[in-house]
Amino acid sequence: MSYQVIARKYRPQIFDEVAGQRLIIDTLKNAVLNKRVAHGYIFSGGRGVGKTTTARILAKSLNCIKGPTVSPCGECPSCLEIAQGNSVDVFEIDAASNRGIDEIRELRENVRYLPARDPYKVFIIDEAHMLTTEAFNALLKTLEEPPPRSLFVLCTTEAHKLPTTIQSRCQHFSFRLLDYSEIRERLEWVLNKEQIEADEGALSAVAEAAEGSLRDALSLLDQAIASSGKRLEESHVRQLLGVVPSQVLVELVEAIDAGNTRQVLETVDRLSTEGYELNHFCGEFTRYIRNLAVAKSCGSKSPLLQLAESERAHLARLTERFSEEDLARFFQILIRAEGEMRYALNPRFQLELALLKMAHVRKLTPIEKLLGGLRGSQPAEDPKAGAKSPERFASPSVSSEKRTQPPPQPVRSAPARPANDHARSGPIASTAAEVNERATAPVPISQETLDPRLDKIKTLAFGQSKLLSSCLDPVTGWRFENGEVRFLFSKNSSWAVDFLSAREQQEKLRSVCAEALGQPVKICVTLEDQEGAGPRVRSSARERAESDQGVEAIIKKFQCTLVDVIDLSRE
To answer: What top-level class would CATH report for the domain 180-241?
Structure first.
């Protein structure tokens, strides 16, 4: 007799032998016991998780000579033939190779006849998503109103490709991938049956390589047994499966922690020389860093870690060397490298670059820490108050009531500024005299966009009349003294002056200014040249940014150049 592979030899024959799908199995058992079996089912999920096996067991439960039963005998002709795949009343159809409308028409003709021997005629359609649109349409009516004593089970790895018209006519069960512990438990059971010994690390390597598929795990185990004989050793199994030894991953993490770039590059060279697939190794190392991050956040005993106890101990030791932020950066670097390696002409270079980044990334100072240091720098002294302003990170878009003298020297050359032009600083204590003086002093043209009083005037104007508000947008400067509000416009905005000079608009503007300033006012609207202001000196957002203390500190700290400025107050 020819050899039977482990995946077929130990294929579950009753519901209780199915691993990892307890909720689905319990539901189907109850349906059989209560005689509430539907006429159509969809079993979806990853490869090797028990979809077709469960469909066969369901067919055996219905057609067993002792049935319907949740524990088919496995000895009657029906049970034996279903297990061997040659039952006269249970049809397994491979939709990948029988996907056309002709095959479905043949199925429809077949389903019209009663079962030849068994109580039910069962149709198991594997890879059902491969059927053509015409085939699905031909199957619709049969699924909706099947003949008596017939059952359809559609198995698929891509349920989203099934038409909604098909899904609505069936009960849908989604099979999940198995956990590491569930796969390992089944592997130990099989090895016990086969009377084969195995190292703990060898079983861990097989269970991890299966990635949730029990059939893949059993196939890999079969391969390892064929290669190793009666004892599975970790080193041999890992080499056979192309899985890097866990010690290499540990040493690589330690080299990254020490910043030992030579050892990092030599490790990559050794893996390449020994024939390991570097793309696969990058995926392994990414999972290892992910496990480190989980162990750091949740502890090495967390059920989120699908690992052996010995590997958990290594993780617990390594997590003490890194912060969560370090591991998050490592994780991000490797995920990006893994994606780039798929399309790179030389994946080795991408992997080496990623590992070098990981070795050096902790030497870099986080931008948050640098900016925090800038916030703590000492700003310029206030010439009026004779005291230093409080620590603050200045921004051209941040408004404040107190104005202080800007630094004596700008970072970059800028147009000359008037002597009374001030830079913004944080709020400081002011005497009553200073507040009075500020309330009546003329507001410089260069700083009108920073005065909250003008902002309030514009806001109130917008609420009263959008047209009035639009005429205040091109204001280049304003003054409030002796009960008179004077708005200045450039020559290009003479249209606004003409509009605001009208009696009706003057009244509206006077009302708005009186409400904003809290006292009756007079209104004067004039052009800059008529005011004797000379050439226009209104500062741009760029000029204000160049004279800002925070921006100056950033430029000095990073030795950079101001490229572009966005005035957030205008957004």
So the answer is: mainly alpha
Q: Which amino acid is at 523?
A: I
**Average pLDDT value for the chain:** 80
Helices 101-111 + 133-144 axis angle, to 10:
20
Nearest to 44 by CA among 172, 182, 179: 172
Instruction: Convert 25-42 to b/e letters by CB count within 10 Å (16 or more is b).
Output: beebbebbeeeebebbbb
Residues sharing a CB contact under 8 Å with residue 324, sequence separation 6 or more, in sequence order: 293, 296, 297
pLDDT for 389 equals 37
| Among 39, 58, 61, 56, CA closest to 147 | 39
Per DSSP, helices labelled H in 211-277 are 214-228, 234-241, 246-258, 261-273
- Residue 105: what pLDDT? 87
Residue in 459, 530, 464 with CA at minimum distance from that of residue 497 = 530
Cβ atoms of 164 and 148 closer than 8 Å:
no
Could you tell me the sign of the dihedral formed by the alpha carbons of 193, 199, 200, 201, in that order?
negative
What is the rounded CA–CA span in Å between residue 377 and residue 326? Answer: 27
- Domain 246-363 class in CATH: mainly alpha
Q: So what CATH class is 6-175?
A: alpha beta
Please state the pTM of the whole predicted model: 0.62
Q: Which range has the worst mean pLDDT, 184-193, 417-426, 466-475? A: 417-426
Burial class (CB in 10 A: 0-12, 13-18, 19+), 172: middle
- Helix ranges (DSSP H) in 89-194: 101-111, 133-144, 164-167, 180-194
C-alpha dist (Å) from residue 220 to 51, 202, 226: 20, 11, 10
Is 246-363 in the same CATH topology as 180-241?
no
Domain boundaries, the chain: 6-175, 180-241, 246-363, 541-570
Q: Is 247 helix (H, G, I), strand (E, B) or coil?
A: helix
- pLDDT (tens digit per residue) in 521-566: 888 888 876 544 444 444 567 777 777 777 887 888 778 888 888 7
